Amino acid sequence: MRTYRARMVLVFVVILLAGTGAAPGSGPAAQSVRDPAVNTQGDPLLAPLTGEGGLQIPFLDLQLRGPDGGGEVAFSLQLLLMLAVLSLAPSIIIIATSFLRIAIVLDFVKRALSLQQVPPTQVLMGIALFMTIFIMWPTFTEIHENAYVPLRDGEIGLDTAYSRFEGPIRLFMFRQMQNDARSVELFMRLAALERPETLADVPTYVLVPAFILNELTIAFKIGILLFIPFIVVDMVVASVLMSMGMIMLPPVMISLPFKLILFVLVDGWNLIVLQLVQSFGGY
Hints:
- The longest helix has 40 residues, at 204-243.
- The protein has helices at residues 2-21, 28-34, 70-87, 89-95, 99-112, 121-152, 158-176, 182-190, 204-243, 251-265, 268-279, and strands at residues 50-51, 54-55.
- The protein has a two-stranded antiparallel sheet.
- The protein contains eleven helices and two strands, in the order ααββααααααααα.
- It has a domain at 98-279.
């Protein structure tokens, strides 16, 4: 045992002596970095950082200066506005497109089937996103052709591009409320605005919350219709269990397979997707 301890102490002392013998920065690599005269062309690690005069480190220079004219000020403001729009793009996609209605309806389907983790929420949101792209594709195509391409080619300015971008989105939202304009009337009254003569007289800051309220109303109506057949299945299963005296057995455990069988037999996913797409019109 003593011999083993003596060997361990000897090894520890040797390690300490080896560490103190080569001080940091005393090796050939460190010397070549300190001394520009040392040839480092053969070193593949230092070659990209060295040149004819030795070690060369890139220099980054940032300067703040005043604008030369009103054009630069306007360009800076336009750039800030564009960055703000890009940061708000996810919110715009959610509230100004078909995403809101689809996401709520799919969540209602999951709750009506009494499913907890299947399908996951991320999967439902992915389905809602790609269905939104499918439904909004004509609108996005019109925006790309009439707003983005002319702006990229320098044919129009930022103000014109914004109006051309806003037009198709406003038209899509108006089409969803053409049979029920109560939401628009509500927010026009809350904003103390006069009755509009045309659709163009409705401001965008009034149209967007009216569209959101309309989408919530339609989504909840669809959710109620989805819940009715599954509630009937739950009531029948609960009545059968009560009549058989199985009070302690949760009815949800028994009704869940029957609801899934019913949903699969009627081809539920295709029916829901079909009705959702057709509810937006144009298909």
